[in-house]
Amino acid sequence: MTDQDCDLLRQKMVTEQIERRGIRDVRVVEAMRTVPRHLFVPEQYLQDAYADKPLPIGYHQTISQPYIVALMLEALVLRGTERVLEIGTGSGYQAALLSRLAAQVFTVEVIPELAAAAQAVLARLGCRNVTVCVANGSLGWPTHAPYDAIIVAAASPIVPPSLLGQLANGGRLVLPVGDRYNQTLLRVRKQNGRVTTENLGACSFVPLVGEQGWKTRTLPT
User: Fold this and answer.
1) CB 176 within 8 A of CB 185
2) Does any domain span residue 38?
3) What pLDDT, on a 0 to 100 scale, did the predictor assign at position 216?
4) Which of 219, 174, 220, 177 is CA-nearest to residue 202?
5) Is residue 99 flagged as an active site residue?
């Protein structure tokens, strides 16, 4: 596909998959109009780069469906001044979007090869406010805490206590919680020591593996 083909498909994606399905945050919509999703997709799936579905990126991981990415980003309610933690860098696509929505982005990926590939594309796009770390994402990244917003691109059986602990007062945590196949997308708010949870709908993500996610030995099949 040519760059022009990709641009046309990206605009169509935003119109049909994002705006028509109710995403109203103009900053999220604009970010998705400008970030080239095809750069984060393996070559064999290039024709489907702007399709309404997740795609494999290797190592049993996926790049999420565009609408779900937009829904999660909108739920963070970002204004551009925030420090954000992303758990599950994956392809780096969501981190690239976050780089246009927040002041600082810290992203954690447990698979070194994915982290390296994502970092290369992020550098190519000039995302200088994104820092990538290879680590156990279920434990967050305490070095740079507290975070105004945390987004998790993998499903956990619980809301990891470490992530709640690293969330700033007034912060928002968006993540899928449930079993291996059936999960609920939650928005967790933390305000003056009180934690509230909002159900954003059903979803399906790869598992968050780690001490406060699915331990490898108990990973559901």
Assistant:
1) yes
2) no
3) 53
4) 177
5) no
